[in-house]
Amino acid sequence: MTVQVVVKANTYIDSVSLMSLSTKANQIEGVEQAIIAMGTEMNKEVIRNVGLMTQEVEEARTSDLMIVVKAENEEMCESAFVGIEELLTKKNKPSKGSSEVKYSTIKSAAENIPDANLAIIAVNGMYAPREARKALENNLHVMMFSDNVSIEDEIALKQLAHEKGLLMMGPDCGTAIIGNVALCFANAVRKGNIGIVGASGTGSQELSVRIHEFGGGITQLIGTGGRDLSEEVGGIMMLDGIKALQEDEATKVIVLVSKPPAPIVEEKVLAQIKKSAKPVVVWFVGGDEEKVTKAGGHFAKMSKEAALKAVLLAGADESKINKRALNLPLVEEVRAKLKPEQKYIRGLFSGGTLCDEAMHIAMEKFDNVYSNIQREPEFRLKDVKVSQDHTFIDFGDDQFTQGKPHPMIDPSTRIERFIQEAKDPSVGVIVMDFVLGFGAHEDPVGAMLPAIIEAKQLAEDEGRHLEIIGYILGTELDSQNIEGQINKLLAAGATHASSSQNAGLLAREFVVKGE
Amino acid sequence: MVSARSGDVDFIQRVIHSKLSGFVHSTFKRTLNIQCLEDGELYTIACNEIDNGPNTLIVDLASFEDMNINAYDEVHSDNNIISIGNKMSITIDRANSWESILPTYPANTDVLKKNIKIMKQYIEIHGKSGGIKSKSVNESPFEQEMSKMIQERKGLLTDELVKKQLHHAVPHAVSLLGLGPGLTPSGDDFLVGLFTSFHLKNSPFVNYQWFFEEIERAAKTATNEISYIAIKKASVGKIRESIIALVNGLLEENEEHLILSLKKVLNIGSSSGTDIALGILTGLETNIKIGGTL
Questions:
Q1: In chain B, what are the domain boundaries?
Q2: pLDDT digit string (tens) for B181-240?
Q3: Residues B256, B261, B264, B270: is their CA dihedral positive or negative?
Q4: Is the pLDDT at A140 greater than 70, yes or no?
Q5: Structural domain ending residue among the three candidates A323, A346, A363
Q6: Pair A127, A266 in one domain
Q7: Of A62, A277, A401, A424, which residue has the fewest beta carbons closer than 10 angstroms?
Q8: A111, A144, A172 — which closes off a domain?
Q9: What is the superkingdom listed in this entry's lineage (chain B) (predicted)?
Q10: What chain A residue is nearest to B40 in terms of C-alpha separation?
Q11: One domain, residues A459 and A338
C-alpha cells in the first residue's frame, strides 16, 4: 500500500462541495481511503491515529487543504489525484494561487493542465536541466528551485528560453511572484505597479515586503538565479526580465536587485536601463552609484532606500510613509550597556542577501569583517565553524545546506551556532533574520526563542549584557502572523529591527566605541 | 453598481466612518471573504439567499460566479462604496442595519425542555451526519477515528461544564477546535452553538467571559481563518441571524416556527448546521442542568 499527499495551500472549498468530493474520492477505483480535510492540528491527529501521517501532512497549515490518498501503488495514487483534481475543477473554481496537483512527469502535467504556463522544477540538480528543457519545449515558463546545475546547462536553458520568449528563472531561484501568484519562498504582498527583477532571493523578498509596507505593490517579481549576472551566463534572464517589465503595461517602476554584476554584464544591464522609458531603481549590494546614475538609473545603497525610491517613483505620497527612522536613543542606551571588550557583531542569517547587506553596512565602519560569503578572499572565514572579529554567516550557503534543508525551513544549525556565539565574551551584538512567507518555517522566532532566553540568561550570569537583534522579513498577509512573531521576540528581551537595513545599521552602531 | 440590502451594523458603520481596505481572502459561489488590513478581521459579502451575520453584508445578487473575483484582488471603501478591484462596486446607501441580539434565557424552562425534545428527534432523523452526529454506516477508518475523538472530547467537555468546572472544561473545548471535516471543522461549529446558548441573557455562563476568551485565543492558531472568525464573534455573543431565529424558536411555544427555523440552520454548509444545532442543544441542556447561576 502507498500513501501519497497533496497539500493545496490557502485553499478554501465550501463544506458541501468538500464532503461530496470526499465521498466521490473514496469511490475512485483503486483507492482504499481518501481523506480531504483542512490542515488543522486536530485533523492531523486523526490522520496520525489512523496511521497515514506523512511529512507533508505534518507541515500543512490550518488554511491548507490536505488530500491524503491510500492506494495499492503509486500509479493508483497518482491516478486518484488526477481524478480528485478533475472533481475539484468541476465543483469549484479554486482561488487564484491555490492550484497544485501532483504529476510524475512534465508531459503528464502539461497534458492534464492545458492552461498551465509555468513549471517549477525542484528535483535533484542532476535531473533538473532535463526537466526544465521538457518544460520549455512545452512552452512553459520555468522557475528552477534546484541548485547544483552546471553553468553550461544554465546557459543552454536560458538561451532556449530567450529564443522562445519564455522566462527561465534559476537555477537556484527561490523567489518569484508571477501574475500575483507567489512561488516558492515569496511573501504575500499587495498587487501594485512596481516590478522587480532579482538575482538574489531574500533581497527580492526584502524589497517586496518593504514596498508593501510603504503602501506600494508588486506587478511581477522575476527571479533570475544567483549566477545570471556572471560573465559566463551574461545576464540573459536579467535582461529579458527588464525587457518584460518594460513592456508590461501594469508596471510603472522597475527595481533590480543583485550582487554587483560582472563588468561586461553590468554594461549590458546599464545599457538596457538607459533605453528604459520607465524609471529603474538599482540596488546592487556594494555596487557603484556613479555608473548607475550615469545610465539614468536610480541608485540605492540599501534595501529600504531602494523600496522607498520605488514607491515614490510609483506615485506614493512621501508625507504618508512611515520611514522607520533608526532609533538613536536606543543606540546610546545599548552602547552604555556593552562592556569595552564587547566589540564584535555576529550576524547569523538564513537569507544570503540580508547577510550581505548587514555585512556591507558593517564594512563601512570596520575593516575586520569576515564572512563565508565575503568576496575578498582575505576576509573569507578560514573555518566557517569559527568566528573571527565581526563575523556574518549566511547559513543558506552551500557549506551549510549540503544534505540539510535550507535554514528558512530547518533552523537547527543556526540555533547551535547562536549559543556558541552567545558564550563569546567579545561579542556585543548578535543579529539574526527570521524569514516568513510561503514555504518558510511556520514559527521561526518560536524555534529560536528558547535559545535566545538561554543566551540572555547565560550572559547575565556572567555579568554582561548581550544585545540580540531580530529582523522579521514578512508582511501582515503572511500566514505566520508577523505580529505574534514580533511579540515573541520582544518577550524574550530581543530588539526588533523594522527592516533588513535597520538591522544592519543597529548592529553596527551598537558596537561602535568612542563616538 | 451592486446594492447592499442589509448588513451587520458594525460593518456598515466601519464603511461609513472609517477606512476599510484589504484584499479578497477567499471566494465561494455565494459568499466572498475580505481580509481587512486595518483590523485584520475577515468580512463577508454574501448573496441575497444568505442570512445576516456578524461582519456580513448582504448584496442584491444571486451568485458571485462569473464575476471573476479572485483571492488577493484589492478591496477598498470610499464614500459608502466598497470596491473590489475593478470588478464589483457595492453601495451601502440603502442597506438596513442588522444587529446580532440574543434572547433571554427563561426563568421557567418548561417550554424549552419540550422544544429541546422535539429538536433532538428532528435532528435524529434529518440532521446531517459525519460531524458531531456520527455516521451509522459506511464509515472509513478516518471517519471512525474522527467520530470517536469528537464524541470523547465532547463528552469530556460537557462533563466538566455540568460539574461547573470551567477551568477544567477549557482544554477539552480547545481539543475540539479544528477537529472535523468541512471548511468549518465540526468541533468549531459545535462550539459556536455552545457559545450561543451560553450567551443568552441570564444564562448561568453569560458572565464568564474569560472562558470564551481563552477558547477564542486558542482558536486563532488551531483552525482556519474563516472558521476562527465565527468562533471569535460567537465568543462575544455575536451570532448569525438564522441561528438566533432557531434559539427564539426554542423559547416559544410554536412547533411550526421551531421546525422552520431548525430546517434553515440544518441547511448551513454540509454538516455545519447540524453541528451548530447540536452545540446549541448541549449548551441549553447544560444551562438547564446547572440552573440558576454558576
A1: 2-98, 109-291
A2: 888 999 999 999 999 999 999 999 988 999 999 999 999 999 999 999 999 999 999 999
A3: negative
A4: yes
A5: A323
A6: no
A7: A277
A8: A172
A9: Bacteria
A10: A476
A11: yes
Q: Is residue B123 a contact partner of residue B266, using CB atoms and an 8 Å limit?
A: yes
Q: Grid coordinates standing for B36?
A: 481587512
Identify the CATH number of the domain in which residue A316 sits: 3.40.50.261
Q: Please indicate, yes or no, if residue A272 is contained in any of the structural domains.
A: yes
Structure-model confidence comparison of residues A177 and B293, the more confident one: A177
Q: Hunting for cell 446594492 — which residue is that? A: B3
Mean pLDDT of A267-289: 94
The minimal CB distance from B179 to the residues A20, A36, A42 is found for A42
Residue B14: burial class (beta carbons within 10 Å; 0-12, 13-18, 19+): buried
**Nearest-CA distance from A38 to chain B in Å?**
7
pLDDT at A198 over 60: yes
Which of helix, strand or coil describes residue A296?
coil
Provide CATH code, domain B2-98. 2.40.50
- Give the CATH number for residue A140: 3.40.50.720
Taking an 8 Å cut-off on Cβ atoms, the answer to whether B269 and A16 are in contact is: yes
- State how many domains chain A has: 4
A255 located within any domain: yes
- pLDDT for residue A93: 46
In a domain, residue A182? The reply is no
List CB contacts of A301: < 8 A, sequence separation 6 or more: A283, A289
**Whether residue A276 sits in one domain with residue A145:** no
User: Does the pTM of the predicted model rise above 0.95?
Assistant: no
Mean pLDDT of chain A: 90
Do residues A112 and A71 both lie within one domain?
A: no
The whole domain housing A294 covers 189-323
Asked whether the beta carbons of residue A14 and residue B187 sit closer than 8 angstroms, the reply is no
**Residue A340 in domain:** yes
Q: Is the pLDDT of residue B33 over 60?
A: yes
B137 in reach of chain A (CB within 8 A): no
Q: pLDDT tens for residues A74-126?
A: 888 888 888 888 777 765 444 444 444 566 677 778 877 888 899 999 877 78
pLDDT of residue B128: 82
Within 8 A of B23 by CB-CB distance, chain A residues are 190, 477
Domain match, A79 and A121 both: no
Yes or no, beta carbons of B142 and A52 under 8 Å apart: yes
Provide the pLDDT for residue A104. 63
Helices B272-290, B141-162: crossing angle, 10 deg rounding? 20
Residues A112 and A205 in one domain: no
Verify that A319 and A332 share a domain, yes or no: no
Percent of chain B past pLDDT 90, that is, above it, reads 72
Which three-class secondary structure string do you get for A177-206? EECCEEEECCCCCCEEEEEEEECCHHHHHH
Determine the residue of chain B that is closest to A69 in CA distance. Answer: B142
Chain B hits for A47, CB-CB cut-off 8 Å, are: 142
Task: Count other C-beta atoms under 10 Å from residue A487's C-beta.
Answer: 13
Task: Supply the pLDDT for residue A404.
Answer: 66
Query: Are the beta carbons of B140 and A63 separated by less than 8 Å?
Result: no
pLDDT, mean over chain B: 92
The DSSP annotation for B78-142 comes to: ETTEEEETTTEEEE-TTPEEE-----BPPS--HHHHHHHHHHHHHHHHHS--SSSSPPSS---HH
Q: Is B269 on the interface with A (CB under 8 A)?
A: yes
Q: Same domain for A113 and A135?
A: yes
Per residue in B94-137, pLDDT tens?
Answer: 999 999 999 999 999 999 999 999 999 999 888 888 788 877 66
